[in-house]
Amino acid sequence: MAVVSFRDLRNQLETEQELARLASVSQESPFPIVELDAEAHLTYANPAMMALMEQYGFDQEALPAVLPPGIARIARECILAAESRHKLEGGVAGKYFEWTFCPIPQAGLLRGYGVDLTERKQAEQTLQEARDALLEAWRLKSEFLANISHELRTPLNGIIGLTQLVLDTPLTSEQYADLVAVRGASDTLLTLVDNLLGFADLETGKLVLKQEAFALRAALSAALQPLAQRAQHKGLTLATEIAPEVVDTLLGDPRRLCQILVSLINNAMKFTVHGSITVRVALTAQSADEVVLHWTVTDTGIGIPEGHQHLIFEAFRQGDGSSTRVYGGVGLGLTIAAHLVAMMGGDIWVESAGPGTGSTFHFTTRFGVQPMSVLQSF
Are residues 367 and 223 located together in one domain of the fold? Predict the structure, then answer.
């Protein structure tokens, strides 16, 4: 009697075909693939990896040089913990790879997949070098701007001082008018130079705040007196209203505070032909060691269109580009003022109903409260 047996080989053939297909994926991959045992001995390398080993060789531990440093330790840890490791960088001679290692615990193997990052790394390095060169050029430009601004301030202060001395002497009406024009032009130029210097300090990180005791009302009076004279010459009224509950003895930087106000008042005078400019100070909040003040500078000038109000605190911008030609200025004063307000822990914004309605600039500041006995010791 003959015994005939049959075995269905279709599943086996399908499995072998699947394995062959998967093996071809590894063989045809343009990216390096390796297998290592627990001792980091190389048990498999696809053609892409073989090409790299031929080109770049091996390290002192006889491991492919393009693998990440410490690969022997990585192999042991991954296989023992059965955990994958991602984004491990390795490379040699300007060649960069990012590796992912996946353990095969049942076989005691570690499989690694590499991605060539050379082009990306080179592009990042090129961008970094370009950025460094740009920052250095920017630093040198800001340094030059600061130096030239300092050099310009000295003769300008001399012109303003001498002009004021002559204005205090007997003059004909024509001479007086001419000298007032000289003084006004000099003040405008000095403001521009101060703004350039302040912007240079801002860019180089030299714009800092001091902490010192000062009398608020005395500081404002000293800072606004010259502006009041300029406003009077222009036919404007400059008024100051400080709420009685605002404490007078504060701790902060009075010079920078006055710089903010001078910028806002100069801006108001530039765009106000007739009427008034009013500075108001109100108390927003007060604790044992801090006060929050709300400042407003209101003018009766040309106003600001609603669509342009968000631009005025940007460097070299004005609410209306055409106003630069009509009224002058480069738009730096308000930019510096906005940064100073932020350094004082406050906010700045503007309100205007539109052209011809005037404008109100608001800003808040935080100051420490200083006892009067400490102030008197200065």
Answer: yes
Contact 247, 282 (CB under 8 A): no
168 shares its domain with 271: no
Please tell me whether residues 165 and 46 are part of one structural domain: no
Give the contacts of 347 (CB within 8 A, at least 6 positions apart). 341, 363, 364
Alpha-carbon distance of 175 to 48, in angstroms, equals 89
Query: How many angstroms separate the CA atoms of 105 and 83, rounded?
Result: 9
Instruction: Indicate the burial class of 373 (C-beta count within 10 angstroms; 0-12, 13-18, 19 or more).
Output: exposed
Task: Say yes or no: 105 and 138 in one domain.
Answer: no
List of residues 6+ apart from 138 with CB closer than 8 A: 203
CA distance 330 to 180: 23
Judged against a pLDDT cut of 60, whether residue 320 lies above it is answered with no
Apex CA 223: angle with CA 217 and CA 227, to 5°? Answer: 125
Same-domain check for residues 190 and 260: no
Distance CA 378, CA 372 (A): 10
Predicted confidence band of residue 354 (pLDDT cuts 50, 70, 90): confident
pLDDT tens figures, 263-273: 999 889 988 98
Alpha-carbon distances, residue 211 vs 176, 206, 254, 365 (angstroms):
42, 15, 9, 14
CATH number at residue 358: 3.30.565.10
**Do residue 277 and residue 170 come from a single domain?**
no
Which tokens hold the place of 49? 């990896």
Q: Is residue 74, in this structure, part of any structural domain at all?
A: yes
Is 285 in the same domain as 313?
A: yes
How many structural domains comprise the chain?
3
Question: Has residue 268 been placed in a domain?
Answer: yes
Report yes or no: 341 and 347 within 8 Å, Cβ to Cβ.
Answer: yes
CB atoms within 10 A of CB 138: 12
pTM for the full predicted model: 0.57
| 5 in any annotated domain | no
Q: What is the mean pLDDT of residues 33-43?
A: 90
pLDDT at residue 23 greater than cutoff 80: no
Domain that holds residue 179: 132-207
How do residues 83-105 score in pLDDT, each as one tens digit?
Answer: 999 998 888 888 899 999 999 98
- Grouping H, G, I as helix, E, B as strand and the rest as coil, residue 288 is coil
Cα–Cα distance between 29 and 12 in angstroms, integer?
26
